[in-house]
Design goal:
Blueprint: E1 8-10, E2 12-14, E3 17-19, E4 26-29, E5 36-40, H1 45-63, H2 67-83, H3 85-96, H4 100-122, E6 129-132, E7 135-143, E8 146-150, H5 156-169, E9 173-177, H6 185-195, E10 203-205, H7 210-218, E11 224-228, H8 231-242, E12 247-251, E13 257-260, H9 266-278, E14 290-294, H10 295-310, H11 330-345, E15 349-352, E16 356-357, E17 367-368, E18 371-374, H12 381-384, E19 391-397, H13 400-408, E20 415-419, H14 423-432, E21 437-440, E22 459-460, H15 465-471, E23 473-481
Parallel strand pairs: 1-5, 8-9, 8-11, 9-10, 11-12, 13-14, 13-20, 14-19, 18-19, 20-21
Antiparallel strand pairs: 2-3, 4-5, 6-7, 7-23, 12-22, 15-18, 16-17
The chain binds NADPH dihydro-nicotinamide-adenine-dinucleotide phosphate.
Length: about 475
């Protein structure tokens, strides 16, 4: 079983210093054991005001750093993150209860890469030049000022980095409000940025719940908010931010489809479907929770998935041989288990899983068996609503158009996948799927240069890639009469 760190007190980080709050502390629970591993002190409105004032002051100097000077600091931060990979991964596990092997090889490297990517990107940014009759004009990109990130609990390291790296590279100050359930890893990111030479006040942490989240939205001196969270939260962020006309990026939920055609590489498709559902215990917004399988291979495909799912080892996230860790909280586990029963009541069958489990050494953690639901149809709640746990719904289709229409028949549009060896079909189907991201013969691959984000109720705006750089700055035109 995991050796826990001594109890930590997570205080908001303002101007490089932890600040004591008079508000009642919230328990931070390790999802794999149910133990309290930290106390979080929620920030007050006055603390937020102080953080924004510090950020506003720090940003003025940061904005006039040459891009290369900003880039050097951010590259140094990436190098320090690589050195601290194991410690960051350990904190990510304590935060989320996900596998250490995942955190070490995916979450932390992907956060780290964002710093290298956006450091490099800012040094290449140029403007436009135009020549008019008796005049010239040019454009430049200017930072927005103070930007805030509000994070979900499933990828705290990645969320902290994917939002702060482009914000800082573009010359902004950044304030992070992590989820109250995952407050730990952000502090190590802050330490690393300070060690890399980032001036104080440019990366600050404000702890708390939706109450301080609302205050961030309503703050007149915050220019932009990037949220990763649920659809209802996205709507709240928009309405709370309307009065101050903030720029907003929303990375929201999903109900992604994976289309498995009978001409696929069978073994690859089976493994991809499992990974696209059980990675991070299914707590991934883009997960392919609707697996559409062509009728001619459906029985064989389901049998192969069930066999593999039943062999998956679920338990202590720190153990090297474990393949699925804990869910974030007891309340969330109960919600996911309820969805299984809702599915059964609607006529779905549990092909495997569907139950809570109590792995040895982690008996009080929030664990669930990898679950595959069959006999599903498109109108069931389990195939329409985001469950956000290790529950796959299998749907059977007859032909390509049927699969495309049904895959698109959702209010979400975050991810989609196509498993086929027919090149023409791969491109045709990818083109027809209404989704921010489509993967062919893989799923959830997210290099930093690839835009990531959704359409429809999955939100708007993108993370990663040069598109994100533009979302943290605005264009300024200068017209010069000669
Ligand atoms: P929530 O929407 O509940 O919370 C997200 C963040 O918003 C938390 O920090 C939360 O604070 C804060 N918050 C909640 N209400 C408000 C409010 N009114 N004003 C300001 N801030 C608020 O999401 P979860 O943390 O439960 O994460 C799961 C959701 O995130 C899923 O729907 C998932 O799909 C989505 N997600 C989307 C991703 C994407 O990239 N598209 C990636 C990962 C997750 P508190 O600390 O109180 O919770």
């Amino acid at each position: 079983m995991t050796t826990l760190n001594p109890m930590q007190i997570c205080q908001s980080l303002i101007g490089g210093k932890p600040v004591t709050s008079p508000l009642r502390a919230i328990d931070k629970i390790y999802p794999a054991t149910g133990e309290i591993v930290a106390k979080i002190e929620p920030a007050t409105q006055e603390m937020l005001d102080e953080a924004v004032a510090v950020a506003t002051f720090a940003q003025r100097s940061w904005a006039v750093y040459e891009p290369l000077a900003r880039a050097r600091i951010l590259h140094r931060a990436a190098a320090l993150m690589r050195e601290a990979n194991e410690e960051l991964a350990h904190l990510e596990v304590l935060d989320v209860g996900k596998l250490y092997t995942e955190a070490k090889t995916a979450d932390v490297p992907s956060g780290t890469d964002a710093f290298d990517f956006f450091a490099a990107a800012i040094t290449t940014q140029t403007g436009d030049f135009n020549k008019w009759d008796g005049a010239i004009s040019y454009t430049s990109r200017v930072p927005l000022g103070v930007c805030a990130g509000i994070g979900a609990w499933n990828y705290p390291m990645q969320i902290a980095c994917w939002k702060s790296a482009p914000a800082l590279a573009a010359g902004n100050a950044f304030i992070l409000k992590p989820s109250e359930m995952t407050p730990l890893v952000a502090h190590k990111v802050a330490d690393i940025l300070a060690d890399a030479g980032l001036p104080s006040g440019l990366f600050q942490i404000i702890h708390g719940t939706d109450e301080i989240g609302r205050a961030i939205c309503e703050h007149p001196s915050i220019a932009k908010i990037s949220l990763t969270g649920g659809v209802d939260t996205g709507k709240m962020i928009m309405s709370q931010s309307a009065n101050t006309l903030k720029k907003i990026t929303l990375e929201l939920g999903g109900k992604s489809a994976l289309l498995v055609f009978d001409d696929c590489n069978f073994d690859l498709a089976v493994q991809t479907a499992l990974d696209a559902n059980f990675y991070t215990a299914g707590e991934v917004c883009s997960n392919a929770t609707r697996v559409f399988v062509q009728r001619s291979i459906a029985d064989k495909f389901i049998a192969a998935m069930v066999k593999k799912a039943e062999n998956m080892v679920v338990g202590d996230p720190m153990a090297a041989d474990v393949q699925m860790g804990a869910l974030i909280s007891a309340a969330h586990l109960s919600k996911v288990l309820d969805y299984v029963q809702i599915g059964v009541a609607e006529g779905a069958k549990i092909a495997t899983g569907g139950i809570q489990i109590h792995p040895q050494g982690c008996e009080n953690g929030n664990f669930m068996a990898p679950t595959i639901m069959t006999n599903c149809h498109d109108t069931m709640r389990i195939t329409r609503e985001e469950i956000f746990g290790p529950v796959m719904s299998v749907l059977v289709f007859d032909d390509e158009q049927d699969a495309i229409d049904r895959a698109n028949s959702t209010e979400f549009g975050l991810g989609a996948g196509v498993m086929t060896t027919d090149l023409a079909r791969a491109h045709r189907v990818a083109d027809a799927l209404v989704s921010g991201n489509v993967w062919v013969n893989s799923f959830n691959i997210l290099p930093p240069g690839l835009p990531f984000g959704g359409t429809k109720k999955s939100g708007f705006g993108r993370e990663n890639s040069l598109y994100t750089m533009d979302a943290y700055s605005e264009v300024k035109s200068v017209h010069v009469t000669l």
